[in-house]
Specification:
- It is a single chain.
- The protein is of the alpha/beta class.
- It has a single domain (44-246), classed as P-loop containing nucleotide triphosphate hydrolases (Rossmann fold).
- It has eleven helices and six strands.
- It has helices at 8-25, 28-31, 44-54, 69-83, 110-115, 119-129, 134-140, 172-179, 202-205, 207-216, 235-246, and strands spanning 58-63, 90-95, 144-148, 160-164, 186-192, 221-226.
- A six-stranded parallel β-sheet has the order 3-2-4-5-1-6, sandwiched between helices.
- It is globular and about 90 Å long.
Length: 251
């Protein structure tokens, strides 16, 4: 008894089905040959950030240096992308360039220009995964992408987690440009400290405080203020910042 041969359309549908299955079996997440190490909150405010993130809040992490704002933000984002929900496909790290707001002052291609600003994320990724090639591997797998605010206008970010780091070096216009890029199914985390800004003009310095006023009134955000009790980088950093504050010296 003979059977009917599949039509061209049926063959095409079957090939598409097999391609989708193959793609799912070889997703960037499943190809990873190393694992994210577990990180637990070490201070009261870090725990506030962890809890708020778990409750599906966007985060505004503001405060002094050495408190682990960028570190825990990358951990929370990568932990969810790699081990949690399938809804988030990528971590976008967004930073404003310094000191000119324009990448043109650096030599080389756009990729070469941005690499100097990625150094902290190489170090954080090495610590999170216990290997020096972690950041490059995550980028090559499409799980992390670094973007300068110079190139963010006109795009929409969907199905991702967005870390806006060193936000004190973004003008109000830049911060506005970033948050209005957020599309469907996204979380966004802002990290920074307005006292560490590299701006010299008061108008630019006032950008972050103005932006923070807006964020504080948005119910989907959790605002966490880090202080000297959260400093973890080293005892020297903690002692220095405490003494600088005691003497009312600003930088």
């Amino acid at each position: 008894m003979s059977t009917e041969r599949p039509t061209r359309k049926e063959k095409r549908v079957e090939r598409q089905k097999q391609a989708k299955q193959s793609k799912g079996q070889n997703s960037p997440k499943e190809k990873m040959s190393f694992n994210l190490q577990r990180v637990d909150p070490k201070t009261k405010n870090q725990k506030l950030a962890f809890d708020a993130y778990a409750n599906n809040k966007h985060l505004m992490l503001h405060g002094i240096a050495g408190t682990g704002k960028s570190f825990i933000s990358m951990y929370l984002a990568l932990n969810e992308i790699m081990n949690g929900s399938e809804d988030f496909k990528k971590l976008y790290i967004v930073r404003s360039v310094v000191p000119t707001r324009d990448m043109g002052f650096l030599p080389g291609s756009n990729k070469e220009k941005t690499k100097v600003y990625e150094a902290p994320y190489y170090a954080i990724s090495s610590e999170l995964f216990g290997r020096g090639d972690a950041y490059e591997t995550l980028k090559n797998r499409g799980l992390i992408e670094f973007i300068s605010t110079s190139f963010i206008r006109g795009i929409t970010l969907n199905d991702c987690i967005i870390l806006v780091d060193e936000m004190q070096n973004g003008t109000l216009h830049e911060l506005d440009s970033v948050i209005t890029r957020v599309g469907r199914n996204c979380k966004i985390i802002f990290c920074g400290d307005f006292t560490q800004t590299d701006f010299t003009y008061e108008k630019d310095k006032n950008g972050l405080p103005s932006f923070m006023k807006i964020i504080k009134n948005i119910r989907s955000f959790e605002f966490v203020e880090f202080d000297k009790n959260d400093i973890l980088r080293s005892d020297l950093v903690k002692d220095y910042i405490i003494e600088k504050d005691r003497l009312h010296i600003t930088t």
